[in-house]
Design a protein that fits this description.
With 27 residues, this protein is mainly alpha-helical. It has one domain. The chain is 93% helix and 0% strand. The longest helix has 25 residues. It is rod-shaped, with a radius of gyration of 12 Å.
Length: 27
């Protein structure tokens, strides 16, 4: 069960990093 929770947390963090990279790329 903890593995699933960790996987979702990692996926959310990866998505946030991708958004930040897109913002930096625009500047």
């Amino acid at each position: 069960m903890y593995l699933i929770y960790f996987f979702h947390l990692f996926e959310a963090t990866f998505a946030l990093m991708e958004v930040l990279i897109q913002k930096v790329g625009r500047n």
